[in-house]
Each structure stands twice: as C-alpha cells, then as structure tokens.
Design a protein that fits this description.
By secondary structure, this protein is an alpha/beta fold. It is about 45% helix and about 15% strand. It has two domains: about 10-130 and about 290-305, Aspartate/ornithine carbamoyltransferase (Rossmann fold, 3-Layer(aba) Sandwich), CATH 3.40.50; about 135-290, Rossmann fold, CATH 3.40.50. It has helices at about 15-25, 30-35, 55-65, 85-95, 105-115, 130-145, 160-170, 190-200, 210-215, 235-245, 250-255, 275-280, 285-305; strands spanning about 45-50, 70, 100-105, 120-125, 150-155, 175-180, 205-210, 220-225, 260-265. Helix 7 (about 160-170) links the parallel strand 5 and strand 6. The model has no long low-confidence stretch (mean pLDDT about 95). Bound molecules: phosphoric acid mono(formamide)ester (CP) and norvaline. Norvaline (NVA) binds next to helix 7.
Length: about 300
C-alpha cells in the first residue's frame, strides 16, 4: 500500500475492498478484544488547521482502542506558527511519531508534508479530497445494499472535496455515479477524466448534469454536502442564492429515486439548506451509521499502514 493516503487515488480497488473487509471485522464486537493491543506503542500525530468533530475524534478513539496513543499537534503550539517550514516540521515529526493525520486548507500543504515525512501521512480533509470519509461511505453502502458494484449513487450539490473522492471511490468499485451541481460548481475536469477511465474499466458510468432530478432518477443512494465548505464562509450568501432551492435534497427530489434509496451525508449538515430535516431525520437516512463507520475504517487504515506484521 502507498505510504501516504492523500486521496482515494492512492488506493487500488483491491486495497479499498481489503480495508472495508478489515473494517467489517473490527466492527464486530466479538473481535474488539483481539485488536486491543494491535498498535501498542504507536503514536499518531493529529494536525488540524480546520475544525473537526468526526475525523479528529474518531481517529483519536481509533488509535487508543488499538492500544496506541495520539498527540494533538496544535498549529499555535508548533514552530510552524512562527514560520518554520512544512518541510522541516515534517522531517522533525518523523523522528518521533509513527503516523500523521492532517486536515489542511490547501492540498499542496499535505502533499508537502507527506513528501518530506518518512512516516505515513493521512489526509483528514483538504480543499481537494476526503479519502477517509469516502471509505466510510463505501462501507455504509455495502452494509445497506449488500453489494457495491451495480449501485447508482447521485451526488447533489457542490463539486468539491467530498464529490471528488466519491467520484474516484465509486468509479474504482463499479458504482455508477451521477453528479448534479449548479453551473460553475462542477468538479475539476481532470478528476472527472480519472473517474471516467476507472468506471470504463469497471463497466460502470459517470455522468454530470445541472439538473438534480435527472441525477437522482432511479438512484440507490443520494448524497450531498454543505454548500459552504470550511474556508468558504465569506461566499455564504452568494452560494445560498446559487444552490437554493434547486439543489436541496427534499421530498420532491427524492421521489425520483428508487423506493428503497438510502440518504447519506458526510456531516456536519445544515438542515433545511442542502437537505431538509424530513430527509436527514427520515427513514431512508443512514447518516449516523455513516458517521460511526468513520471509526471502523480508520482503525482498518491505521492497521494496514502501521502494523508491519499484519498480513494484507
Ligand atoms: N465528515 C467530517 O469529516 O466531519 P468533521 O468535519 O466533523 O471531521
Ligand atoms: N466539504 C466540506 C466537508 C466537511 C466534512 C468542507 O470542506 O467543509
């Protein structure tokens, strides 16, 4: 497996499936005992430039439950805040830690951090990608739909970090993916191109439209994300005006999906913006299992990256 997991691009289809298998094993309460000391002595550094509830706390819980430890690397307490370079910070942290999870504004920063670290670096969200979230989403689809290949997922909203890694994850596993964004908020062409290539290999399809009704038609899974990602707060008014009401997941829109569709959201959600309360709190919503699965997939990822004895 690659040393660094900065995007779903860093994982092959087989590696993704093997992480999901291990996550399912670790999720079973019967197996908690056997993994309790699996990462004994390993130390995870957690560097978060932006706020986080799920990613930060599930990573810390994951390493603790596997017998390791976590150190919070607060920006203001590091010499980074006084101008020490990312390169030198990476070299130094590699002398003490076993792994770093980082949440950064600019993807270039995590690329630099990983390039100069000799230990694994995991992306806990950048402006471009959110691989750990998408692993959890795939596990959630597998659990509810009993299969991955052949499902159709509709993503409605901002063609941003979540959408980008969903495109890669779905296309690598043969899940059809239909994206609907307002004009000007589409994912980058180079990411669409990779997804199209992957989906061709896997006999699935990728499509993009500005019409959300077209995207949700016959979908097995509907998902969305905030219209105002962290760092975009200044664009809030302008974004609300562009996205609402057309790109809201609501009762009217979901009528076009399959009757047994599931609704997913990476969270945090802005109720009655990208999704109505009726939908996110309704019977098709699986958002709490999706959030719980963050813990299980991250445990699996940490074991795969850090346990040299573990047979992949
Ligand atoms: N989904 C997700 O990454 O949540 P946090 O921002 O709370 O970590
Ligand atoms: N697109 C959102 C995802 C949060 C988990 C953001 O970047 O803020």
């Amino acid at each position: 497996m690659n040393k660094n997991i900065l995007s779903i691009c860093d994982l092959s289809s087989d590696q993704i499936l093997s992480i999901l298998d291990l996550a399912i094993y670790l999720k079973d309460p019967l197996n908690i005992q056997s993994s309790k000391t699996q990462l004994r002595g390993k130390i995870l550094g957690m560097f978060f430039q932006k706020p986080s509830t799920r990613t930060r706390i599930s990573f810390e819980t994951a390493i603790l439950q596997l017998g390791g430890n976590a150190i919070n690397l607060s920006f203001n307490d590091l010499q980074l805040s006084r101008g020490e370079s990312i390169e030198d910070t990476a070299r130094t942290l590699s002398l003490y830690l076993d792994c770093i999870v980082a949440r950064v504004y600019s993807h270039k920063d995590i690329e630099k951090l990983s390039q100069y670290s000799s230990i694994p670096v995991i992306n806990g969200l950048s402006d471009l990608f959110h691989p750990c979230q998408i692993l959890s989403d795939l596990l959630t689809i597998l659990e509810y739909k009993k299969k991955l290949r052949g499902n159709t997922l509709a993503f409605i909203g901002d063609g941003n970090n979540i959408c980008n890694d969903l495109l890669l994850g779905c296309s690598k596993l043969g899940i059809n993916i239909k994206i609907s964004t307002p004009p000007g908020f589409e994912p980058f062409k180079w990411i669409m191109d990779i997804a199209k290539k992957e989906s061709k290999k896997n006999n699935s399809f990728v499509s993009i439209t500005n019409d959300p009704f077209e995207a949700v038609k016959d979908a097995d899974v509907i998902t969305t994300d905030t219209f105002v990602s962290i760092g975009k707060e200044e664009e809030k008014q302008q974004r609300d005006a562009v996205f609402l009401p057309t790109y809201q997941v609501n009762d009217e829109l979901v009528k076009y999906a399959k009757p047994d569709y599931i609704f997913m959201h990476c969270l945090p959600a802005k109720r009655d913006k990208e999704v109505t309360s009726e939908i996110i709190d309704g019977p098709h919503s699986v958002v709490w299992m999706e959030a719980e699965n963050r813990l299980h997939v991250q445990k699996a990822l940490l074991i795969k990256l850090l346990d040299k004895e573990f047979i992949n």
